[in-house]
Design brief:
This protein is of the alpha+beta class and 231 residues long. The chain has 2 domains: 2-134, Beta Polymerase, domain 2 (2-Layer Sandwich); 148-224, Hydrophobic Seed Protein (Orthogonal Bundle), CATH 1.10.110. Helices cover 41% and strands 19% of the residues. The protein has 11 helices and 11 strands. The strands form 3 sheets. A 7-stranded mixed β-sheet has the order 3-4-5-2-1-8-9. Strands 6-7 form a two-stranded antiparallel ribbon. The longest helix has 13 residues, at 163-175.
């Protein structure tokens, strides 16, 4: 499929590259022509990705060397290529609810990249060439059982970045899944942390929740988790 060609460009240079995120969920839902952004995870560093794009006469729209992200527009679609990485949060960052890790390290392991993601079903990688999933955290089992499970200790993950709370609510209600028990307990205990988010970041995510068919159920949960006092 032409939309996956950037993966093959990277592979032609000897790099690992896989679909991740929204497109993987679309494949699981039988919607391989999903029109939304295409996220690609790779072991190529930013300085290695840029020459690959230049060869295709593509000018990146955004480059972030610290987090290993290169975004560009091609054939009517928005792409984001991100280097495998692990993120480390210091106690100082957690106390300040800073949202950003104190250290980012680029890695070559899919599993190390997977554990820094928010929920298991977002830690699935897909190889379009071989038509198979790379599943380092047993996410397919959660998908089949319709479970939303935060990776690692959910309370700590919410302390690292309170935006994850809103994302978890959005994915659960967008897919019609249910919360894993520890995840639900953490939502109830840490939902108030979303009030530390900037108004623009918070509003952007809540707007996405408003667009869900299960919006009323999501609204009830946001109130239950102390994310919202009223709407």
């Amino acid at each position: 499929m032409k939309r996956y060609e950037p993966i093959y460009w990277l592979r032609a240079k000897g790099f690992k590259s896989y679909l991740v995120g929204n497109q993987v969920r679309a494949i699981l839902l039988g919607k391989e022509d999903d029109p939304y952004d295409i996220d690609i995870a790779t072991d190529a560093l930013v300085d290695q990705v840029l020459p690959v794009l230049r060869k295709q006469k593509i000018i990146p729209a955004f480059v972030d060397s610290k987090f290993g992200v290169v975004s560009f527009f091609w054939e009517g679609l928005d792409y984001s290529i991100t280097t495998f990485r692990e993120e480390i949060y210091s106690p100082k960052e957690l106390a300040r609810l800073k949202r950003y890790p104190s250290c980012v390290r680029f890695v070559r392991s899919i599993k190390k990249d997977a554990v820094r993601r928010d929920i298991t079903i977002n830690a699935l990688y897909f190889d379009p060439e071989r038509k198979r999933f790379m599943d380092p955290l047993s996410a397919l089992k959660d998908w089949q059982q319709k479970i939303i499970r935060v990776i690692g200790n959910p309370e700590r993950r919410f302390e690292e970045d309170p935006l994850r709370i809103l994302r978890v609510v959005r994915f659960k209600n967008g897919l019609g899944f249910r919360y894993q028990a520890d995840t639900l307990r953490a939502l109830k205990a840490k939902g108030y942390l979303t009030r530390s988010l900037s108004g623009s970041i918070r509003s952007k995510e809540i707007t996405k929740i408003k667009e869900l068919p299960r919006f009323q159920e999501a609204l009830k949960e946001l109130r239950e988790f102390a994310v919202l006092k009223s709407w």
